[in-house]
Design brief:
Length: about 575
Amino acid sequence: MFRPKHVFICFLISFAFFIDPSSQHVDDVKKQQMREKVREMFYHAYDNYMTYAFPHDELKPITKSFTDSLSELGNLKLEHLPTGYNGSAVTLVESLSSLAILGNKTEFEKGVLWLSENLKFDVDVRVNLFECNIRLLGGLISAHLLAIDPTNRLIQGSYDNQLLRLAEDLGKRFLPAFETPTRIPYAWINFKKGVMENETTETSTSGCGSLILEMGALSRLTGDPRFESAALRALRQLWRMRSSLDLLGTTLDVVTGEWLEYSSGIGAGVDSFYEYLMKAYILFGKEDYWQMFRSAYLASQKYFRYGPWYHEANMWSGKPTYWQLTSLQAFWPGLQVLVGDVAAANSSHREFFHAWEKFGVIPERYLLDHQMIHPTERYYPLRPELAESTFYLYQATKDPWYLDVGEAMVKSLNRYTKVAGGFASVRDVTTMQLEDHQHSFFLAETCKYLYLLFDDSFVAKRNYIFTTEGHPIQVMSSWHEKLPESYFSGNWTFSKSGEWESGASALSMKVCPSVAPNSRLREQHRESVCHVPDQKIDHKCWSNRECGVDATTCRQRSCSEVGFCGLWNPL
């Protein structure tokens, strides 16, 4: 029987397998070269931000100007934009943990000192609670924890918890949003005025269900329980609103508690809800986080999964609604690595990477049933999710194929999105027309995960979880109610006793034939390393024989009723 203590609750996972010394040397050389290329990418983006945009929120790399985008994030209709808002240095806040990982102590300390003296939240600006939570609050908390960690020695001068005080001030400004009949927070809050008159009551599942990591950490650091309590009440109320199938819709009303959008999946609007249940269990050790995640994860496999793909489904009936790949779904394989479902993670990851290879970057939305890019969502805003999952899978398997994936991504980003003033978003992946925007998450996540793929020395020192915005928070036993003592002993090793219950995993826990050339190690197997080329590269098929061999299980693939190759095992 599967028990929570066997979960892969840290990505520092090691499998026992034979490594040929010569191939290891080749991998080390490649990692060193690619690490420096990613470092160059980060500083090209960061230096241009500091030159042309700081202290505003984000860089416009084509015109070498700036945007105060915190008031625009999530605001598709650009309503209630402020007139006197001059930014909150969002990109600097987002970059601090990346600077720490790159080992730039000087720039990290300069950033901390500037924020300590200049960042103020007593401003009349309406912001999206979720975006502000993951970017500003998460960035400040993570940087504070890195600053006080004696093993990092990032601050050479004095540090008196300035970032924590800023985070506490910000957290207090969030609290009025939770004053609703359901205790589910408004999606929007004004820093100075609280909830504005006639504010919209619509929010998303991810927006109100993905606050617990940052607000929980803030309570643990300040001793003020209000932040964690507010986020936890909202999360529990949201879970109570699930359907009998353990599915949640995409949007809801925070006043009436009614669902507004019944279609659900693992992509936009819901994605980080799943992520935060699992990571909250890792960070805080509450048993109910695990129970919620386990039920939600099994439901996702039953109603969303179709081979390596995940479609959307009606939360009440479980019937498919939309057959589409969205770029935000690419975080899912990384989450599955944390769960220990590595074979399934590899299967989905391969499909996302095939999409990247096909277009040069990954489109925001691709219609699987029509084999076409969505007519209006053709953009790629420098998203990090595929790089994130690649990092997790390489940590889990040490399969050098994932290094090749990372190298391909670095080449694409430099080829298609690099401009003189930074890195620009892609407006249309079919033409590679660019858009004048460098999102802060490019420095907080995309560059960070690519760097960690080629240099994991930072995560080798401590057990961390990364927030949905890529900010590391150290896992500490003092924050836990109850978790196995061995959890805090260092790196984790895969144990076959940690498998899911029969039928619960996304795919059966298969292993490819051993790749070890030493006959004495023939009995050793390695998850997710059998990257056998498909006969049908684009995966569109008309019959089973066109599909070739599956790269996860080394078994013959079959053709689905919607024309995709895969191992179709509906639960």
